[in-house]
Amino acid sequence: MEFFVFVCAAIMVLLGAVGVIVRKHPVHAALSLVLTLFGVAVLFVSQEAHFLAAVQVIVYAGAIVVLFLFVIMLLGVDRVENLRTEPLTAQRPLAIITCLGLVGVLVAAIVNGSGVLNERGEGIKLPDLQNGPDANTVQLAESIFSKYVVAFEVTSVLLVIAVVGTVLLTRKTKSSTGSQTK
Amino acid sequence: MIALDSLLVDDLLWAPLLIVLVKVLIVFVVGLLATMLMVWFERKAIAGMQNRIGPNKTGPFGILQTLADGIKLFFKEDLFPTRADRFVFALAPFLSFVPAFLSFAIIPLGGDFRDGSSGEVTLFGQVTRIQLADPPIGVLFALAISSIAVYGIMLAGWSSGSKYPLLGSVRASAQMVSYEAALGLSLACVLLLAGTLSTSGIVAAQSTITDWHFISTGIVPFVIFLIAATAELNRPPFDLVEAEQELVGGFNTEYSSIRFALFYLAEFMNTVTMSALIVTLFFGGPQPLAIGNFVFDIPLLPNALEGTVWLLAKILVFLYMYIWFRATLPRLRYDQLMDLGWKLLIPASLGWFMLLAAQRLGRQNGWNIIVVTGVSIVVLVACYVLLQAAITRSARERETQGTMF
Q1: How far apart are CA B10 and CA A173, in angstroms?
Q2: pLDDT, tens digit (0-9, with 9 covering 90-100), for B281-313
Q3: Where do the domains of chain A lie, and which CATH numbers do they carry?
Q4: Given an 8 Å threshold on Cβ–Cβ distance, is B143 in contact with A170?
Q5: What angle (nearest 5°) sits at the alpha carbon of residue A118, between those of residues A117 and A123?
Q6: By CA distance, what is B139's nearest residue in A?
Q7: Are B170 and A181 in contact (CB < 8 Å)?
Q8: What is the ipTM of this complex?
């Protein structure tokens, strides 16, 4: 049963991932991304990580891709892009180099950590009739808010800095628009 | 085993399987019937409020009007606009319709939760809940589904390949993403007090009227949840998605025939589901009205069935309230909508959540609860003053320098 679910979810994930790259239309590519995210959520559920699955759907499929689509629709770039034009001339060779580098790093990481991959660590607490329905969520909350609380808070600060930085970079200074004021 | 229903713990036999199938069928049929009656109820009630008669030809009191409309729409021509994206255009109504039904699965529809009972009932020798599914993530399932529902509206507007529906769908996505934050934060207040995500657990935690989360969270989260839920449903006064005066018909302008009917049904089904969710979270779901030790018991009915009666009665109150909103409140302007969501509801729900969390921590550590509340309120007031100062400053700068992007 678990194998069957895994195969179905894996097909969903791969189809979506290929779709993001192959589909020429930005909206179709974004929808393929949703398919991938759903596949990952199904994989989480089959590993009994229900809370992660819910967060995956709420945050990624429900908010982030919606914002992608929002921007695509708002800017009106929802037409097929001409892939022949290159704003940055060196981007194709650079992309190939980065791709190969990423594959290399991933392979090195897997080879290096092959022993760790087969261990299960402490294992997650499964929600069942003894542990109660929230065992998994409680376990996750305890590790995030006690053991890894500093990393968690620092990540949120990083996100705020990113937002503030974006606003600051895209904001025009007063001198450039000052001539238009009445 | 994934399922927490005691029905599904042992090997699957034909009896449990049959019970689950019957439950699915009942939830689906009840959902459809409820939607049909809700459409009729809304038309009739609004007609009454506007001194009209409303539907009165089909069946007694015009109760079959929705059925007649549905049959009519079935036989209408199904149009595809020339500039439409055919696949997405055909997919969008289902993306809107299916989530509307899915979230009904986690609502406890009955059962006896009194005196610490777990709400489980025995049917044909099998112990089960009067609820289609009780997943470990509970209410988060409803949040996930409601965040998926936005795709239906967004893609419908975009795939029509026409200006007004596109505007409607851009509005919809901004509105629904904005109000989801306030919805989630006010929901977190309930989860903080109930201490569980499971819907049956939340219902079991609300045995007397003072335990109803509506009162025990201090009313503010309920008000925020109600406003955010109305915005999430795109119902008046937050129906900018289909503002007729500005957008012709909104996101569904180009739709016709049964595809249009699906959007229409989904809207009303969502209203019913959201009312049921509000009742479950804040008003004790199938719990009877109980003040102290005194319980308003309906005689002659078994307690489990009585739960269903109470649930229906409570849901009806909210359905009527939504109709009342539609008949009474004028639509918000777009900037007012965003101001309300971002500058009022989200800070208020976050502040209230912090207050409840501080109280909970104080109670756990045995601190003086009045001091804890006092200090929290001082901190919150300071935060409010800071926020107001920031808003005033930015408004003044916009005045002098003009909007800048």
Answers
A1: 68
A2: 998 888 888 787 777 777 777 777 788 888 888
A3: 1-80 (1.20.120.1200), 125-170 (no CATH)
A4: no
A5: 90
A6: A54
A7: no
A8: 0.79
